[in-house]
Amino acid sequence: MQEILDPEACTTMVEVRAGVDAVDAALVALLKRRFGYMDAAARIKPERGQVRDEARKAAVIANARAHARTAGIPEDAVGELWEGLVEASIAYELVKFDAR
Questions:
Q1: In a domain, 36, yes or no
Q2: What span, in angstroms and rounded, lies between the C-alpha atoms of 70 and 52?
Q3: 1: in domain
Q4: Contact 73, 81 (CB under 8 A)
Q5: C-alpha–C-alpha distance, residues 13 and 89, integer Å
Q6: Does residue 2 lie in a domain region?
Q7: Which region holds residue 53: left if phi is over 0, alpha if psi is between -120 and 50, else beta?
Q8: pTM above 0.90?
Q9: Each residue's pLDDT tens digit, 59-94
Q10: Which domain holds residue 41?
């Protein structure tokens, strides 16, 4: 198994790609945990209309953008990613809510 290097230590594209693949696997594991919280929300919320909360959505995206800014990565790109993530989470939660 190939050692995963920090980005600054990479000198070949093989090393870069191995690092990207490792990060992607870790992100998927974190997304699984995040969607688990959507399972919990669907179980806890008493009414279907509470699944979509535009104020909360805006706060989550603003938080992600702020974290990106602090981390020095593209804030707009992170905001767009989180827009899609939150919408996917809402859709997932609605399915789970309706299934209960």
A1: yes
A2: 28
A3: no
A4: no
A5: 33
A6: no
A7: beta
A8: yes
A9: 999 999 999 999 999 999 999 999 999 999 999 999
A10: 7-99
